Amino acid sequence: MELSSIDLGIIIGYVVITVLFGLWVSKRASKDIDSYFLGGNEIPWYYLGLSNASGMFDISGTMWAVTIMFVYGLKSAWLPWLWPIWNQVFIMVFLAAWLRRSNVMTGAQWITYRFGKTFGAKLSHIIVTVFAIISTLGFISYFFEGIGKFATIFFPWDLAFELGPLAVNSEQAYALVIIGLTTIYTLKGGMYSVVGTEVLQFIIMTISCFVIGYIAFNSITADQVTAAVPEGWHNVFFGWELDLDWTGYIDSVNTKIEEDGFSLFGFLFMMMIFKGIFASLAGPVPSYDMQRVLSTRNEVEASKMSGLTIVVLSIPRYLMIAGFAVLGIVYLGPELQAMGEGVDFETLLPVAIQRFVPIGFKGLLLAGLLAAFMGTFAAFINAAPAYIVNDIYKKYINPNASAKTYVRYSYLSSIIIVVVGLIGGFFASSINTLTLWLTSALYGGYAAANALKWIWWRFNSYGYFWGMLAGLVAATIVPQMYPDTSAIYLFPLILLISFIGCFLGVIFAKQDDMEVLKHFYRTTKPWGFWKPIIMEIQKEDPHFEPNRNFLRDAFNCLIGIVWQMTFVLFPIYLIIKEYYSMAFVVLIMIITSVILKRTWYDKLKSSELVDKN
Predict the structure, then answer these.
(1) 483 CB-contact burial (10 Å; exposed 0-12 / middle 13-18 / buried 19+)
(2) Cα 219-252-2 angle, rounded to 5 deg
(3) CA dist list (Å): 145 to 183, 217, 229, 432
């Protein structure tokens, strides 16, 4: 498909503005590594919240979300729990404050804050740095797979080429060009560039979402949707089995469901809950989300930033997702049925844009989706080099280098990470496969050690190291042992192996230094099993009050999950015109918002733990 000159002008103009902005802020960002990676802790929380929301609005994830709504209907609202999306609720309620109180730059540096400077702490420091790099490489491959499929449908040029024995097809060539441009502006501008461009990207993306929602709302009727989908598609609730048969509608969708491994939907839901509790309690993985929390001014702003991310992300995004899904079902359904087997459902989003979006708006939307991709990709390649430079080079190789040297090495680290991640992208099979591996297998190796580090005083540095190492090895080997099993069903086994590593480390190594543990608890004040440490602190300070807010936080998390779900369901019901269901969702949204206002937001307050600098 050839884009009009208007659409091409909008897209090219946006890319030029983005790159120029990165160059413009490069002088401020390159002052030192604190400015480069955290924006000097000067960026307001609402900008960081918009940036975080924009960073989560990635193009690969949006393509996946459109596909699963097309296939699974209203039940697709549950499938983002694979990540789980409600880890943002846990972060909002208590983890953002706990994490921000450390005043560190990276998740690996936080290890020293938690475990001290012993040999075991150094091993833990190294293993979490390795995890951060591996997860970033995985996400780069995930982005590479999505942006290539997306771009090829719209841009008219065949960019395929051969480089020695390597044959690069047009999808891969477009991905290389877009990723290269994103890398340039991120390298130069650091966190200032990432946040600044992502706020702009969020504005463009939100406008685009409302445009698509408007087009879909006015282009289809409820009866058209009902006639084009099988029984059960409209039902958000489910039994043990999915019970969704596309035979006679689009037969190849049944093959897609079988390949995904989601037929036993009740069992899948149980696995998502089980995995979600551990993954959410573990806290944000060492990537862009954690970097936003550490970039805030203090713990209160960290909590507000996480809450804002939930509010501003879901409704606009799901207007777009639902809009494209129903447009595809109604108008592309007969065509897809005629194609038979072999349909690539992951291209539904770009095909729908090609068919249904008018000139001018198409350029704006493509610029917005391109912005979303660039923002998410930029966030990852800003976060990962912080671990290489701050946690490896500065800590172990050259602790006395100049600020400019550290920034230069961050440039080099970014380039190496991007190149290695792209190599992995050449061998990726699909977005869905990468999504399941990242959310289930890899995070299965992360959850055990990182949940225990918050809640158990006796969990030591060796337990963390062996738990993380066992989890990473299991996440690599177990999926290879069971190639025909969806990664989400392997999560319990990977988690168990990781827990065994954790407890072996605890059993065969002594507890960490008491002074380190007291400092950690006194400043972070998590709830959990900390009684021996609390008693030691109270010997020195009889007036010290421990954290007794577990029940309140647990209640707020439950309410928050329901609250977040209403932001997902409201735009879906609006687009498919189920107004009674929509009104019920709005009522639940209001009730849960009032509850959270009283039990969470009103409780936020500055304290002596907030960094005053």
Answers:
(1) exposed
(2) 50
(3) 17, 30, 29, 10
Sole residue written with tokens 């997902």: 568
* Under 8 Å between Cβ of 314 and 567: yes
The per-residue pLDDT of the chain, averaged, comes to 82
CA–CA distance, 108 with 433 (Å, rounded to integer): 28
Contact 291, 382 (CB under 8 A): yes
What are the two backbone dihedrals, phi and then psi, of residue 344, each rounded to the nearest 5 degrees? -90, 95
Q: Which two tokens stand for residue 170?
A: 């047009």
Question: How would you class 158 by CB atoms within 10 Å of its CB: exposed for 0-12, middle for 13-18, buried for 19 or more?
Answer: exposed
CB 104, CB 113: distance < 8 Å: yes
Structure confidence at residue 93 (pLDDT): 95
In contact, 601 and 592? CB cutoff 8 Å:
no
- What is the set of domains in the chain, with CATH numbers? 5-76+88-231+298-428 (1.20.1730.10)
Which tokens in the block code for residue 13? 């103009």
pLDDT digits (tens, 9 = 90+) for 389-400: 777 787 778 888
Element (H, E) at 464: helix 461-481
Which two three-digit tokens encode residue 109?
């540096």
User: Which amino acid appears at position 475 of this protein?
Assistant: A
